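pasting for the record
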Amino acid sequence: MFDIGFSELVLCAVVALVVFGPEKLPTLLRDIGAFRRQVSQLWQHAQHSLQKELDAATAEKPQEPRS
């Protein structure tokens, strides 16, 4: 989906190091990782809830006879 090469990653790392500085960068990366985990858990919870609702709706729906 995204075509990001090694050189682009290195450029992003250098820019982040210059902008945020070496003392704030580890904290920033830790916070970004925690945020990403929270979003991932929220997405998985939403998918699980939706699947449960679909399963319940399918189980309640009577099967129509096919001719």
